[in-house]
Design a protein that fits this description.
Elements (H helix, E strand, L loop, with lengths): L15 H22 L8 H11 L1 H18 L3 H17 L7 H16 L6 H14 L11 H4 L17 E2 L3 E2 L1 H4 L3
Antiparallel strand pairs: 1-2
Helix pairs in contact: 1-2, 1-3, 1-5, 1-6, 2-5, 3-4, 5-6
Length: 185
């Protein structure tokens, strides 16, 4: 949990127990985001696994929440500022798992971890978070999108051209390409 960026933001003066709680809370948050963002592919079971995680690991999640809350109150000048920082921490954790360019990779990784969480014994969710949080964070690294096609990244790579979809004379019954009228593309 002390590795930079693993729990979202720095936690100065945190004890090992508080860092473990932050890891558990990050894992829960990531799987919550996955349950919402990955609904496009129901076979990943991100939603069902997240619901099972909440039920099976209720006590460990509650303990992690309480430990984190106490940490922020302990390191803040007063209780009110500590609660405010705790709320900000939660917001940063959730936004840290929002994906656009890496959604599929994140969803596949979160599905794998969520599946493993279902079979993790009660009280051992922190071990799972410790073992797989780096993998989950790495899955958020964008792998590219339409703005960065292979030709733009490396001009020596060229994709085959597409047929002229908009030219109706090139198509027989709307689905068979007419080489004789439009030639190779």
């Amino acid at each position: 949990g002390a590795e930079p960026g693993i729990v979202g933001s720095d936690m100065p003066e945190a004890t090992p127990e508080e860092l473990r709680a932050a890891l558990v809370w990050n894992l829960r948050s990531a799987l919550n985001v996955a349950a919402l963002q990955c609904y496009f592919e129901p076979t990943l079971l991100t939603h069902a696994n997240y619901v099972a995680l909440l039920r099976d690991h209720r006590q460990e999640l509650a303990d992690s929440y309480a430990t984190l809350q106490k940490y922020f109150i302990r390191v803040a000048p007063n209780r009110r500022e500590g609660q405010t920082e705790f709320d900000r921490f939660g917001t940063r954790v959730y936004s840290g798992f929002s994906t656009v360019s890496a959604q599929l990779n994140f969803c596949q990784t979160a599905a794998s971890i969520g599946h493993q969480a279902v079979f993790t014994p009660r009280g051992k969710l922190g071990d799972l978070a410790h073992d797989r949080m780096r993998e989950l964070r790495n899955s958020l690294i964008p792998v590219g999108d339409q703005a960065f096609t292979p030709e733009r990244i490396n001009p020596s790579i060229s994709l085959p051209p597409f047929p002229p979809f908009a030219d109706e004379r090139c198509w027989r019954r709307g689905h068979t390409y007419r080489w004789d009228r439009c030639g190779n593309f």
